[in-house]
Automatic annotation (TrEMBL):
Annotated protein name in UniProt: Ubiquinone biosynthesis monooxygenase COQ6, mitochondrial
Record-annotated FAD-binding domain positions: 56-330, 380-454
InterPro entries given in the database record: FAD-bd, FAD/NAD-bd_sf, Ubi_Hdrlase_CS, UbiH/COQ6, UbiH/COQ6_monooxygenase, UbQ_mOase_COQ6
Origin species: Erodium texanum
Protein topology in the membrane: Peripheral membrane protein
Transmembrane segments: 56-77
GO biological process, one term: carotene biosynthetic process
The family this protein is said to belong to: Belongs to the UbiH/COQ6 family.
EC number per UniProt: 1.14.15.45, 1.14.15.46
CC per GO annotation: extrinsic component of mitochondrial inner membrane
Family annotation (Gene3D superfamilies): FAD/NAD(P)-binding domain
Length: 511
């Protein structure tokens, strides 16, 4: 990531004072791609209402995984579980219970959740619902280059853990969060509608309120955000949270600017089947982009294959047999040989840097399991990096893809979004503890400062990897091989990389 983008992304904006202004648009907000699981009360009787217009503490626009994670986190803390919360999402599936059948093949839309994210799910009581459905922990990961010059194997034992992560279908994660939310006492209302306009008002003075009481009269309407919905409903909220995806309508209506670019790549995702169960995450860097093979349980794996738009279109239109052959070619001997031995010998040159040898240091290269057939339709989508210059202003905060989108090569996008959701809920609780209006920009900027730094770090690392492995050039290939072998044989470096990828510590270069 170049210096200009880093400077723009890392700058913390001064607190904004937004005068009263009305934003409107005929465009519908992007519906969540996740499929929810449980029925919810729609336009239920709420507390602290005016005669005609509902008033809420928090209005969450976007009921996908990240929006539901925020709601679950609010429901789990003593200071926030009494809040009145509105969830606005036009996805009709929000109103019906989804039956997840064990015998169905996995959906191609999956997420790799890190140990840090798993702990957050456990804290709010959602992980127990994930465990009731198909999921796949993996304790090993192998990354290698198509040139055959180097590879790295990671093992959970290197950092004293049982797993490096868990691959879960998005619909299972969403089902778990909704199931968790339904079993809380949070005062929630789901609006099966779209946000069409939003009015942000300037408060005449800094107001301190007791947000823990649902029977207390809320702010006067002039000190709230007003939301108009496509079904004609109007509601007011102290805080509007945009969790409505990469094409966020909240972000657009609130006037947040973004910085970013489109990659010259598309990704194909699908579910494939093997003859044996896969327990390892595999990633190979090819000339046109990486291909990943991730376990999803039973004999299934998920494919994320990045390539040029032209190649993606051709691969997507292949018949099944030809596509399976192309997959195995990309994962196995195609484009170059297996790394049979280290370019730099057996790693002795790194012996003085090893420290206590990691358990995976001496593990040899393994070929990934062969794909025998497709188990789902193929899906194709363009890739981009986008980052909101601000995450928060008066009465508005962005989380998840509404605030940032990232290349999928590291599988970190949804983990960043979950990190946003849980961080924002903590900041809201801190505001309530000291009697601060939860929509005050000074409070919301604390959330922004925390998450912007973490997100920029991850975005910079992933973007750097994408650029470094998109060039096929002899000297650079050797440097990449040296990097692979360094990560393989320098145990302290290997442990730091694993801990960073698992979300448990900052990357040492940025600490």
């Amino acid at each position: 990531m170049n210096r200009t983008i880093l400077r723009r992304l890392s700058a913390n904006a001064h607190a904004l004072r937004i005068p009263r202004k009305l934003f409107s648009s005929e465009a519908a907000s992007e519906a969540s791609s996740s499929i929810p699981a449980c029925p919810s009360h729609v336009h239920e009787e709420n507390r602290g209402l005016t005669k005609d217009v509902q008033q809420y503490d928090v209005a969450i626009v976007g009921g996908g995984m990240v929006g539901m994670a925020l709601a679950c986190s609010l429901a789990s803390m003593p200071l926030t579980k009494q809040l009145n919360v509105a969830i606005i999402d036009s996805n009709p599936a929000l109103q019906s219970k989804l039956l997840i059948k064990k015998e169905d093949p996995p959906d191609p839309r999956v997420s790799t959740v890190t140990p840090a994210t798993i702990n957050l799910f456990k804290d709010v009581g959602a992980w127990e619902y994930v465990l009731q459905h198909r999921h796949a922990f993996f304790d090993a990961m192998q990354v290698w280059d198509y040139t055959g010059l180097g590879y790295t194997r990671y093992d959970a034992r290197d950092i004293g853990k049982e797993a490096l992560g868990c691959v879960v279908e998005n619909k299972v994660l969403h089902h778990a969060l909704l199931s968790c939310l339904q079993n809380t006492e949070l005062h929630k209302t789901i609006y099966p509608s779209r946000l069409t306009s939003m009015a942000i008002h300037r408060s005449s003075s800094s107001t301190h309120v007791d947000s823990t009481s649902t029977t207390t009269t809320l702010h006067s309407r002039g000190n709230l955000a007003k939301l108009e919905l496509s079904d004609g409903s109007n509601l007011y909220a102290k805080l509007v949270v945009g969790s409505d995806g990469g094409k966020s309508h909240v972000r657009e209506l609130a006037g947040f600017k973004t910085t970013g670019w489109s990659y010259p790549q598309n990704a194909i995702i699908c579910t494939v089947e093997h003859t044996l169960e896969n327990h390892c995450a595999w990633q190979r860097f090819l000339p046109s982009g990486p291909i990943a093979l991730l376990p999803v349980g039973d004999n299934y794996s998920n494919i994320v294959w990045t390539m040029s738009p032209k190649e993606a279109s051709e691969r997507n239109s292949m018949d099944e047999d030809d596509f399976v052959k192309a997959l195995n070619h990309a994962l196995d001997y195609g484009y170059g040989p297996h790394p049979k031995s280290s370019l730099l010998g057996d790693g002795d040159m790194f012996s003085w840097l090893r420290g206590d040898a990691a358990s995976s240091t001496k593990e040899s290269f393994e070929a990934p399991p062969k794909v025998v057939k497709l188990a789902s339709a193929r899906m194709m989508f363009p890739l981009s990096l986008k980052h909101a210059n601000d995450y928060a202003s008066k009465r508005v905060a962005l989380i998840g893809d509404a605030a940032h989108t990232i290349h999928p090569l590291a599988g970190q996008g949804v983990n960043l979004g979950f990190g946003d959701a849980f961080a924002l809920s903590r900041v809201i609780a801190e505001g309530i503890a000291v009697g601060t209006d939860i929509g005050e920009v000074s409070l919301l900027k604390k959330y922004e400062a925390e998450r912007k730094q973490a997100n920029i770090m991850m975005m910079a690392v992933v973007d750097g990897f994408q650029k470094a492995y998109s060039i096929d050039f002899g000297p650079l290939n050797v440097l990449r091989a040296a990097a692979f072998n360094g990560a393989q044989y320098i145990s302290p470096l290997k442990r730091s990389i694993i801990s960073y990828a698992s979300g448990e510590q900052k990357f040492p270069l940025f600490s």
